[in-house]
Amino acid sequence: MSRLKWSLLLVFVFVLWGGYQIDSYRDAARWRRDIAVWDHFESPDGVYVLEIGYADEHWKWARLSRKGSTEVIADRWFNAAEQIRVGWHSDRVHCNLNNTDTIRLPPYWFERWLARAP
Question: Which of 30, 86, 93, 96 is least surrounded by Cβ atoms within 10 Å, i.e. has the fewest?
Fold first, then answer.
């Protein structure tokens, strides 16, 4: 194939990928807006508060903030059909039974930056 054909194919793939990302972003924003049920969990040392919102029967949104503050410093989307169990440790909090949905304490700068994104 010529360079032009490869370039057009690459542009087409990027357009498809970009459309998928925009659609995913819109779905996530709609789900965050429509969450009505929240569970609140406080860390044993009283420094952090973890809120878990239920978007539907499988998708959950966990957001972490400091106690007394409304600023979200870390958040996670996760898919869990089973009941949520929160486990607090000195360096992390996990939101699921399999320990894969983990937020470090304190969150990295990148997690704090991502949590501020709309």
Answer: 30
